[in-house]
Write a structure and sequence with these properties.
Layout (H helix, E strand, L loop, with lengths): L2 H4 L2 H16 L9 E6 L9 H7 L1 E9 L4 E9 L2 H8 L17 E4 L4 E5 L2
Parallel strand pairs: 3-5
Antiparallel strand pairs: 1-2, 2-3, 4-5
């Protein structure tokens, strides 16, 4: 299983759902935000697991909204120890998405249209 397979549409869909669910559990203004899709990361030719192990993050894009419309945000997906281990062992990353009971693994900057996601 290569890096593109690990970061597949299935992973992106699971991440999208978990982000929206985590925000819906909040009591503040973020409660009204949702994620309406994450595009699989476009990795440059030759991008390797070794590079990801060094940088511990990849860029991506996703649709974020809180009104009837959504905006394409720049995402940074950060890989924690569990996610890096899963990649090294070529295992699914879905188990590395934090639970929806908290949103502290998400950092949204609406003004700059960015979202940072911290995997386990």
């Amino acid at each position: 299983m290569d890096l593109e397979e690990l970061l597949s549409q299935d992973f992106c869909a699971a991440l999208e759902y978990r982000i929206s669910h985590a925000w819906s559990q909040l009591s503040g203004p973020l409660r009204w935000y949702w994620c309406d899709g994450i595009l699989p990361p476009e990795l440059s030719a030759g991008y390797s697991v070794a590079q990801l192990q060094r940088t511990k993050h990849i860029p991506a894009r996703g649709w974020i909204g809180n009104t009837p419309t959504t905006t394409l945000f720049t995402l940074t997906i950060r890989f924690g120890p569990q996610a890096l281990r899963a990649i090294a062992q070529q295992q699914s990353l879905q188990a590395c998405i934090p639970g929806a009971d908290t949103a502290d693994w998400l950092t949204l900057n609406v003004a700059h249209e960015t979202l940072t996601i911290q995997l386990l």
